[in-house]
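Predict the 3D structure for this chain.
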Amino acid sequence: MCLARRFSIVGPLVVLPLLPLVGQKSQPVQTHRSTIVGIAVDSIHGGALPDATILLAGTTLSTVTDADGKFRFDSVAPGSYRIAMFHPLLDTLDVAVGTAALRMGADSVLQVVLATPSSRTIIDRACPEARRRLGPAAIMGRVEDPDTHTPISGVRVSVVWKDLTISKLTGVRRTPVLREAITGTDGAYVICGIATGMHGTIQADRKGSVTAEVPIALGDAQLAFQPLTLLSLATTAGSSVVGHAVLTGRVVDQSGSFVAGAHVTVQGARSQGTTTTTGDFRLTDLPSGTSAVLVRRIGFAPAEVTVALSAATPASVTVHVERTSTALAAVKVVGAYEVALTQNGFTDRKRMGMGRYMTAEQIASRQPTVLSDLFRTIPGFKVTGGLTGNEIQSTRSKCVTYWVDGVPRREVQSGQADTWVQPTQIIALETYGSAEVPQQFMMAGSMDCSVVVIWTNRTTR
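Done. Predicted structure below.
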């Protein structure tokens, strides 16, 4: 169910009285025409609203606000007019801002202030009270096809972050929190119940087509906007690893120096490359959508950035990497993991993108205490408390089956999965809905089950 509630605001926000046009007394006005001056205000982020289109209804006059949000209409004939404001921010909010009828006299100046609704107004109208109790902030946006820019409905958009909790029993813990919403027919979504100051990631998925995990932070703000692009199901029929998008970029270190010989890959793509002596790279045949670019180089910490890829327009990105003092040991570990994950097929399946995939770095960043902690923030799963421990359940299938290092397993009682492996042992994790399970992970009599595939560091020995 989509959480978005459509609404619009129409009416003058601030309209000041008519002021006489000030001019030189020695030059009487002959045109008997007037001037409208105004400013557009962004009440959500605070400050001016530049690049907003302002229309003077009833005329052919239009203008665009400058960097200070100011606009002006000259030589306006006496009469009654309405002023309307358009901006991508208002499109995201699905809000219309304009004035009531304004009466223009001859030889006068009309001053107008147009403002977007405040964050509090937007959240109060878009989020039910029960959701607002979970957190005062919200995240809004639209999901579109990256090549055609058409909205996509039925997309699950999920936000994950760590919430700091303090109690006498558990002490200080960072508990994973998950919030979700489904896009409407216009591709819009609203995720309510977000904590102020949240730092986390946002991701969209629809029937096997998944975006990268995009970093998102609210700081002290109460409302954030995050557009996402996702290939539609029709576009991803067949192979989803080859497309027509192009990405160029440059890799530099902390001082801005070029980094040559860095290995560059894109999530869900076969194409990969190495930077030149000037740190440049160019990748082609990439699938469109919001993707992650991963850069690795011996002597540097791995770096990941998010990029919106489209077959219609080439993308460009600059990636900053940091030198590490323990590069040699880190490369040995990563190399062992990569070899093992290539041999067991994880790398190829991740490129195909039909399920959800987590690497050792992503697992460590969530700081899980036990295996079930990871599933508190993985869309399609939930964790409930049983008599003997935490039970991992699927929200989309009837049951959950497991594979650990290629061996099938089933939970006989709740909490058993938490005893199989420690989170620090996991080098990769795969999850699949019942309709997208690879052939090698299907079990007899379990066709309606979601599947969890776990790979541990035992496979690297």
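Confidence is low (pLDDT under 50) at residues 1-26, 233-240, 326-333.
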